[in-house]
Amino acid sequence: MYVLVTYDVATADAAGRKRLAGVAKTCVRYGQRVQNSVFECQVTPSEYVELREALRRICDESCDTVRLYNLGKNWAQRVEHIGAKVPYNAEDPFVF
To answer: I need a labelling partner for 21 at 20 to 30 A (CA). Which of 2, 7, 10, 15 fits?
Structure first.
């Protein structure tokens, strides 16, 4: 499944900045950053649950927001790219 993760973490204090770093670090384990607070992730259903729960543990639900958009298996027909950056293809080999 193809999932778009977006987030807005309150960073007014050190705890917020730590949460922001934790959210980004978690998302990197599952996908590719495509904008500052946006990741595209190709995950299995069990990885999706792991990702969602990891983000839930990190975030302060009283001031942070995370949105997960499940685009399913036919995601390529639902994603359009406009602009200078080369689009990310989740089906290409992922090299560290």
So the answer is: 2
Place of tokens 């298996």: 73
pTM across the whole model: 0.80
* Nearest C-alpha neighbor of 60 from the set 20, 28, 30: 20
Q: How far is Cα 41 from Cα 34, in angstroms, rounded to an integer?
A: 10
pLDDT tens digit string along 61-73?
Answer: 999 999 999 987 7
- The yes-or-no verdict on residue 78 having pLDDT over 80 is no
* Cα 83 to Cα 34, 65, 71, 77, 86, distances in angstroms: 12, 26, 21, 18, 8
Domains annotated on the chain, with CATH: 2-73 (3.30.70.240)
